[in-house]
Each structure stands twice: as C-alpha cells, then as structure tokens.
Amino acid sequence: MQKEKIFKSYKWLLKKISISPEVAIVLGSGLGEFTDKLDIEKVFDYSEIPEFPISTAPGHAGKLFVAKLGGKNVLVFSGRFHLYEGYSPFDIVYGLRVAKLLGVSKLVLTNAAGALNPLFEAGEIMLITDHINFTGENPLVGRNLEEFGPRFPDMSRVYSRRLQNLSLEIALEMKVVLQKGVYIQVKGPSLETPAETRAFRRLGADAIGMSTVLEAIAAKHMGMEIIGFSCLTNKNLPDCMQETSEEEILEMARKTNKRLGEFLLSLVGDVRF
Questions:
Q1: Which single residue of 81, 218, 247, 250 has CA 20 to 30 Å from 32?
Q2: Among 112, 25, 111, which residue's Cα sits nearest to residue 70?
C-alpha cells in the first residue's frame, strides 16, 4: 500500500513536468523566500498531488517547485512534514521517495535550529557533519521497500564529505561564516529545557531542531548524496536560558535566509556540485 501511494504521486508528476530533476532542496522554517532565486517551470500545491501529505507548520508554504537553479534541474520542497504535526515517519520522507523516482540523486537539506554549541551565534549557518536521531522514530521501520534501498543501510557517512569540502571552499570564497557541527533531531513541538540542553550538548550535539534527520536516513537508504545546513535562529545557554517564541525564531530564519540563499545558489550552480 505504501509503495502504491508513492508511485501514484510519481506517475502524476511525471506527466506534468518536462525536465528530469537531479537535485532536490528541502527548505526549512522561514526559508521560503529562497524560491525567488529559481527559474520556475511549474509550481504545485502539495494538495494537488495525489496522496501527498499537506504541510501545516508555520513558515512552510506547502509547495513543490520544479525549476532550474544555477543551470541544474531542481525540485524545491517549500515546506516539510514533522512528527509534531502528527505525521508518521513514512509521511515525513514521502516527497523524497517521489523525488528519487523522478531522478534526483543529490539532496540539500536546510532547517532552522537552535545553537547548543556556546561558540556558535544566532544568525550563523552550520554545515551538518553528522546527526543524532533522538526522536525514537525511523522511516525504515516496517517492511523494507526494496526498490529504494537495502534492509540495513550503512550510516557511517550520511553527509557527503565531497560536498562538505566544496561547501567550505565556496564559503571561504564568499566570506560566509560556515560553522561545522552535529545536528540532533527531537520530536517537539515543545522547546528544550535547560537540563535537556545540557544533556544534548553532552551527547555531542551542536544544534537542535525538529526535522531533517529522518529525511537524511531515508535519503541515505536510497543512495542519495546529501548535504545539510542549519540556520541558527537562537542560542541555548542552559545557565542563562532566554525565553524565545515561534515568531522570533521565524524572524531570525528569514534574516539568515538571504545569506543562505546566495550561498546555495553558488553551491548548487558550481560545476563540481
């Protein structure tokens, strides 16, 4: 039943688009303005696509853009799905499985995250070098979808070393501060307490959020080359924890978006990507 749903969405989109996408980009909270940089062929509301989940989170438009970026054919997901919305792990990675069937081999994941590393500042961008899955969920649980990947995929190198090195090189050329660190995903929707912040930091996490990791697991399962970035929207210092709100987080994500958007344009448009 799961496989039939995915193929239904894939076949519907295949009839609607004329380009074969090679790169997929998932936009995090407050990052929707990035779509202004696209040479758009088609735009679909998620609600138009048969069997596709519908994004309900604030700051997520719920649209799929079929476009060109830096000379490459791309799919851009403006809006994703979260466990805290009540979606299953299958729903959360649904769009990426459809993207794989359409020909996507490279994936760019972005998110808005809280900085756990005291050396990082709000407004900076973090290159994700590894992740911790603290959700208690996994998109690969259940019958393995053999068409997409093996039963027990290796996770020793989820994020492409090649694309990380390229990202650091381009960041240096553009004079963009690009921190490096480990991202931890929690289920949400409540933000973390001071005690939880200390615990996650001791686990080795540098930034925290409520997305991305399940997507990365599914993408690795499908053999995609993955790169991920976090827009650091607030700084979590457990000994002097400041209250924050959804509005403040989204506003900082929007401010960081311009810098990240210009960076992604250079990265994806590079001939080495």
A1: 218
A2: 25
- Per the annotation, binding residues are 29, 60, 80-82, 112, 192, 211, 234
Q: What are the structural domain ranges in the chain?
A: 2-269
Whether pTM > 0.90 for this model: the answer is yes
- State whether residue 260 is helix, strand or coil: helix
Q: For residue range 218-267, list pLDDT tens digits in order.
A: 999 999 999 999 999 888 775 555 666 566 666 666 667 778 888 999 99
Class of domain 2-269: alpha beta
Rounded Cα gap, residues 2 and 194, in angstroms:
40
pLDDT in tens, 191-220: 889 999 999 999 999 999 999 999 999 999
Burial 218-229 (b: 16+ CB within 10 A, else e): bbbbbebbbbbb
Q: Could you tell me which residues are annotated as the binding site for phosphate?
A: 29, 60, 80-82, 112, 211
| Annotated binding-site members for a purine D-ribonucleoside | 192, 234
